[in-house]
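Input/output pair, single chain:
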Amino acid sequence: QVQLVESGGGLVQPGGSLTLSCVGSVLTLDYYAVGWFRQAPGKERERVSCISGATGAATYADSVKGRFTISRDNARNAVDLQMNNLKPEDTARYYCNVVVDYSSIWGRGTQVTVSS
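Output:
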């Protein structure tokens, strides 16, 4: 069964950094576009960043441009999200997602809390 497992979340002060990882099982992530999403309490889930499967091109939400970087680590079958200069408004549960054969696969998420 295809699974995605997120890790790396935690509590960090404003201005701090975290690196989230999304590791795939069964599925070779390098072949697919992988997205990172987040959802804060009372808000809709929003896409934060995505990396394409074919070219590795990355896209970012305007709110995180210049602060977040998405990358692949094929040795770990992972897609990482480096988050710098974190702000309280980045507080949310972060999920990774991949679409395989028209099926959308989600991990269970990892919580990021930015607070002093």
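The chain has a mean pLDDT of 95. The chain is about 0% helix and 55% strand.
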